[in-house]
Amino acid sequence: MQDGYDQFCPIAKTAEVLATRWTPLILRELMADNRTFNDVHRGVPLISRAVLVTRLRELEDQGIIERRARSNGTGHEYWLTPAGEALRPIVSEMGHWGLVHARDAIKPTDLDPFFLVWGFRKRAVRDAIDKKVVARFEFAGVPANRTKYSILWLVLDPQGVDVCAKDPGFAVDVIFRGKIADFVAVYLGYLPWRQVEGKEIIVEGTDRRLIKEVPTWIRLDKIVGRDFPVVKGVVRERTTGAI
């Protein structure tokens, strides 16, 4: 861990936890109940596994998380301690600030399709479906270094939700096609789903009821960004191709 700021200031002590590279994103995943090492890494794929090991160890030493044996007896999980839970509103407010003030800072290279579908996984409402649902996403305009994720699958059933970069072998119920930038804008609440459905984003499938209920089972109807003000030019002028 870095040496710290050598100040007793409470802001300095908090910054020693939160101002370390990758740590807020690791906490974001833990706060979304992604508690295994592999699930945290899937949510933050650009961090090396070695650095993730180091950051998790630091959070343990700081009393922010603790390791617990998994219920099935294999390996362990990372759980927030009371001190870690107390950081939840801080991390949430970081997200709220970003929705408003960093909107124009989103670059084309930020548009990671795997992270987007991983976000849909975290939002998925399993109680909203009564059978296995397989959705295939076909993205256009993906950054050059992420083209292997131009097609992804989201598999939902009442027992769990998963993201697949390879065809899972199940019949596909719903197909989504469109530009990754439009999907991200919907995900963040900058564009209403009903405004882009059938236009910028094409949805195909035989189960019309399932398609109609898309906003329910991946929670597109409850997005905080939709209710936030639009603030222009706070970070910088919009980059060509940004959202």
Topology of helices and strands:
Elements: H1 10-18, H2 23-31, H3 37-43, H4 49-61, E1 65-69, E2 76-80, H5 82-85, H6 88-101, H7 113-123, E3 133-140, E4 151-157, E5 160-164, E6 174-179, H8 180-188, H9 193-196, E7 202-204, H10 208-212, H11 214-217
Parallel strand pairs: 3-6
Antiparallel strand pairs: 1-2, 3-4, 4-5, 6-7
Helix pairs in contact: 2-3, 7-8
Task: Summarize the structure in words.
By secondary structure, this protein is an alpha+beta fold. The chain folds into two domains: 8-100, Winged helix-like DNA-binding domain superfamily/Winged helix DNA-binding domain (Arc Repressor Mutant, subunit A), CATH 1.10.10; 106-216, Nonspecific Lipid-transfer Protein, Chain A, CATH 3.30.1050.10. The chain is 37% helix and 16% strand. The strands form two sheets. It has a five-stranded mixed beta sheet. Strands 1-2 form a two-stranded antiparallel sheet. A hairpin with a 6-residue loop joins strand 1 and strand 2 (76-80). The relative contact order is 0.11. InterPro entries: HTH_HxlR, WH-like_DNA-bd_sf, WH_DNA-bd_sf. One of its GO terms (molecular function) is DNA binding. It comes from Bradyrhizobium guangdongense. This is Transcriptional regulator.
